[in-house]
Amino acid sequence: MQDISEIDELIKLISRLPGLGPKSAKRIVLKLINNREELIKPMAKTLAEVYKNVFRCKICGSLKSNSNGCNNCENNKNKFNKICVVENIADQWSIETSSVYQGYFHILGGTIASSNNQKKEDLLINSLVERVKKDNIEEVILATSATVEGQTTAFYIQDSLKNTKVKISKLAQGLPVGGEIENLDDGTLISAFKNRQSFKK
After folding, report:
1. Are residues 87 and 186 both part of a single domain?
2. Which pTM was predicted?
């Protein structure tokens, strides 16, 4: 290969994206280079705008734009009485696509795990408690993954909500042990939501 530092750096960056390795990254880079005006130029502009204007909401963890309020936690058009708690935005998008759930979302941004440096205060759990109290939420649905980390996080959230009167439920049948929400098909998600159970230690 030609030794061009800009291309090498771009390949390294693209290969860090989910599901892509060095070979796929090289093919993508060649496609971009061969379509400079149609792909590289508008992509560079859009990436710069996303970097500048799109952030995680500090209240609910969803994505928001500088030019607009948060469509999730500042939704005044629809007053919901449920909050679905998920680990990441990909989980939120998967559930929204399935149309099985109508309500607010709360995106933690990770899980509590001893194997990484994720701090409990980074997971917006205190913000969740405040939302439950402020918005008169009747049910919190814990849609964390069926991994050890996901279940540990769910127990911690339940403990954090113990002084509220909110009903706490968890996804049920169809959610396989070790399964992650974003990888489930619509039928599995529908089953898991419809058969959710009260969350107990």
Report:
1. yes
2. 0.75
